[in-house]
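Record format v2
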Amino acid sequence: MVLPDNIPADMEREINEKGGLESITLKIPSRELLNRIAKIHQALSDVIRLKIMFFLYEQRACVCLLRQITSLAYSKLSYHLKILRDIGLITYEKSGNYAIYSLTDFGKFCIENCIAASGDYRGEE
Amino acid sequence: MVLPDNIPADMEREINEKGGLESITLKIPSRELLNRIAKIHQALSDVIRLKIMFFLYEQRACVCLLRQITSLAYSKLSYHLKILRDIGLITYEKSGNYAIYSLTDFGKFCIENCIAASGDYRGEE
DNA sequence: CAAGTATTTCAAATTATCTTAAAACATCTT
DNA sequence: AAGATGTTTTAAGATAATTTGAAATACTTG
């Protein structure tokens, strides 16, 4: 990979000090990993799903309880639960009629990151 | 907020031990904050934008350099840069003709979270 | 100020995500 | 087995995000 014809001199110097473009781009995660990171963020990019995640961070819950918390129809809720489930943020166990949902360890980790970041989430839009 | 008519007994006990549904739901971030968190995740839910973020984590860059790294048309690149800029993940300074982009502190924080999580990003889909 | 380079904006076309209501499944109760 | 309850699936339409290419802006240099 070659540098563009004319780029600012100080930037070019920085890049060369780091061993050139190649060695910088080597540090970028693989397309596969970027894809996975993208999908996880996608799963957490919806207010409904975040509300579910934050609730489950405090308390495991059957779907009927989540229905009450969110005021959503079952089918809609189920759609969002599936997205969180498929990406590995939540899991569930059956208990009679009920499906009892809870966060996976990875789900907890993500919500804790959100909480840690919340101080920095001041809107600058 | 009242509990649904029939929920599993052990779940009901857990909820009561935490002071009931109200005190649990009080811990969920406000709709405003959830909205902001959702938008940030949305901004990071695209492979192109993640690639830009990870590159800028290593090295500030003008748009023409990012164009080379990503092999995108300027207009498309500019669209994605705007999304990252608007949410406060990246910033830029003009230097002559060039716009030199770099991560904000918050952007760095987010990418560091991604890196920390990468160990856990094993696909279970 | 005209021409060149770097970057952004715009609107139309495309694609992805979300919502809705109806139907299907699973488990429990009688 | 039939009815009730809890949950998921499906397919259609509605909404939102992305892509594309052309035109616009901004700065620089001769």
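Residues 105-118 of chain B form the longest helix (14 residues).
The two ends of chain B are 35 Å apart (CA to CA).
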